[in-house]
Amino acid sequence: MPNPRVPAAPGRHRTRTTRTRILEAARRELNRDPDRSLGDIAEAAGVSRRTVYGHFAGRSALVEGLVDDAAAALRAALTAVALPAPDAADAPTALARFVLTLWPVGDRYRMLLRLAPQDLGAERADILAPARDMATAIITEGRRQGVFHASLPPPVLSRAVEAYVSTLLECGNTGTWTDDGTRTAAAALIAVGFDGDLARCGDGPYAGSDPGNDPGSDPGNDPGSDPGTRGMPRVRMDLPLLSAVPPPRLSVTKPAARVPQRRNARSNRARILATARKELGRNPDITLEELARAAGVVRRTLFGHFPGRVALLEALAEEASESFRDAAVAGVTAEGPAERALAQFALSMWPVGDRYRMLLALARHDLGAERITEIIKPARDEVTSILERGQRDGVFHAHLPPAVLSAGLEALTVALLEQVNVEALEDDGTRSAIAMLIAAGVPEKQACAVVGDVAATATGEAAEAGEGPCP
Question: Is domain 67-229 given the CATH code 1.10.357 in the classification?
Answer without folding.
Answer: yes
